[in-house]
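It is worth pausing here to work through a concrete case rather than discussing structure prediction in the abstract. The textbook approach is simple: state the sequence, then state the predicted structure, then interpret. We follow exactly that order.
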Amino acid sequence: PAGNVAQSGFYYLLFNCQENIGLQQRFTHIAVKILNSEGVQSMSDISVDFDPAFEKLVFHKLLVIRDGKTIDKLKKEEFKVIQREVNLEQYMYDGTQTALINLKDIRINDIIEYSYSLTGYNPIFGGLFSDYLPMEFLVPVRHLYRKLIVPSGQNMNFRYTNGAREAVISKAGSETSYLWEAREVPAVKFDINTPDWFNPIKIVYVSGYRSWEDVVRWGLDLFTVPEMEKKELGSRIEQFVCRQPDDSVVIQAVRFVQDKVRYMGFEDGMNSHRPDNPVKVLNQMYGDCKSKSLLLAEILKLRGIDSWPVLVNSQTGKILGEKLPSPLAFNHCVTGFSMKGKTWYADPSISNQGGDLDHLFFPDYVWGLNLKAGAKSLTPLPPATYASTKVRETFTLDKVGSGATLKVTTTYKGGDADYQRSALAASNPADISKQYQNFYSIIFPSIKPLCDVVVSDQRSGENLLIVEEQYSIDSMWKRSANDPQLLVCEFYPLSFANLVTGKKSPARTMPYRLAYPVDCEHQTVVELPEEWTAHDDALDRGSAFFHYHHSIHYADRRLSIVHLYRTLADFVPADKVEPFLAALQEVNEHLTYRLTYNKGLAGGKQISWFSWIVTFIVIGISAFFARKIYVKPVTPAFGPVFAKVPIGGWLIYFAMVITFTPVRMAWQLFFNNDFFNSQIWDIFVDLDGSLRNFVWAIIIFFELVLNMALLVFSILAVIMFYQRRRGFPRVYIFLILAITVVTVTDNVLVSWLDGSALSDQSNIKTFRELFSWIIYTAVAVRYFLVSQRVRRTFTEPSVKYVDKPREEVLLQPSVEAPDLTREE
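Step two, the predicted structure:
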């Protein structure tokens, strides 16, 4: 056999299907070879579906061929006719029956051969034929034979997809035959997670409809309401839909049809495509999609609003334009309406929907066919974009190693609110609370609810559904498998569990399905019992198909972790799947956040002696060099020495900055940083030994060393300033330039390592302060280099230096003498 049949367990020796449109008859002849036990299981029941309202089924032959011997299995008394109603769970009753016979004693290597005829077409189509003919299957076919016989004078349109072979055409008398024949047809294997609309099978579409306008005319005949029934509907509808402004009456009508008229349909025979008239639907208070859509359209018409039914396909709407015009191209019906120069669409089959006209979620059906006069082609439908979910978790941790309380607030908007509202309406409050608890018990087995789930339904306006939960968790911490002294607390956004899970398949050749639209934000807030070592971070990843943002911010014992995920398309092309899944995998690596606590370093062992030793060494070395500078003789560097003047002018402003610089630096180093917390080194050195953590440790070490040295020299600058030492300007210029270089370099390194400097909003304040300091540095350097007051103020020599006797330049009132009351 052609292709791999290990999964199916059988293959077709013969698939012969011949159809005579003039006789309304289809003949099918099949021979199947059984290869293994899976094939025995699959083919021991022979079944054929038919609609007794217009079809007649006749079996011609049923044989089992074993070891060259033929066994006749065609016994009328062993056939059973059952009504399965495969769409019963969707409240659809189509009346289709199944003729079924169970073949006993089927064995591996048996050949099952059977043939049957179906006679009769659904009269709802008025004699116009349309169908699609697959030329491949999910199992191999040794001999494929298809024939279509069309009576003369009946034009037939064909469309070939996926490289399907064109028919061999022949004429005999008053009939035209179209023949397709192939041998050794391989099985078609689908990649996992392909979109519903994608079908790689070679298919020949056949239709007697010349254009979509023909389909519109066909639909208008079925969806036209007689004037008598319109009048009766008008008298009945007053009790359901009051007269209000247009916007209000539309929403009121939509809600009535969606929620009060339940969804159920009996679609046997001509009811498969003909809607019930609106009065009947009101009497029985139920209807299928086409009946509810027609009812809504007629109600809106009675209120003076232009409205009409719209045929759509809920699964393959994306490729409707690739199909031939035919009623079979559609499987669903919605309602369109026009008002104030704008067109809206509503799906009456959706229950518990919310939102006003501007916030009414409409599924992504892509294309539709308006059943209204003048419609000639498919109409693009608005994209489904109004749907989002925001989750905010707040963990309030008890002492380290203990439990926590958890408060969860989930805000659903648009389509997500509609879905959750329907799900909640189908469950009682006790079941809802249990379901939500089970959801979190995946990662917190000991979780217990503190109260019932509270639901706030804001159905009007923007259409919001807010769900609030509260839980207690006995233990949030786990002992590390590698270090018994290390406690770990993990946080994971469960709402993302199914959104960013990639499904790989080898040598992919088909598009990858994406849930769309998805707009999910998950924020985890952790209220910590004590100060913690945590660094702000941010990450943006994405492509043409999704966007992901991840940010971390810590301040005042509060940790905030935000994940944002949006899909930008409903599928990924086959050649883009591999990089897409790789990007998705990187997203998964950022979903879990870990807090660690080293018990061995807790309590009195929190102090980092390493940091203190480094501090004492750096302060000692810096003090040694500071003293050298303090006593080093400095000759005048700015020209002749003028008469001394006191600190004044702009130097008063600089005096404040110079005085408070060491105070600010000391506060930052000793009270507002983690240099002396032993956990900082444990996290970045001992935790996992990664290169990233090693680089962090190096950066923190040099931050400590350089800042301690700068602190000593800033104190030196204060002493020399108030003693008006001659060397102060040089010392201060060096100091502020060093502070600027160190600060800028530190921020650049942290930004490069974390990626947060340009994207994390929490750093805006830091960069404003840095920019202000750079401006200050530029102004101060120039001032101390060129100012006359600086030259006359800082004139004192060092303690070991005594100026040689020299003649002082006495200031005399003249035009050449500088004005000491002004800065120059």
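Step three, interpretation. The first helix runs from residue 37 to 43. Residues 132 and 205 are 4 Å apart (CA to CA).
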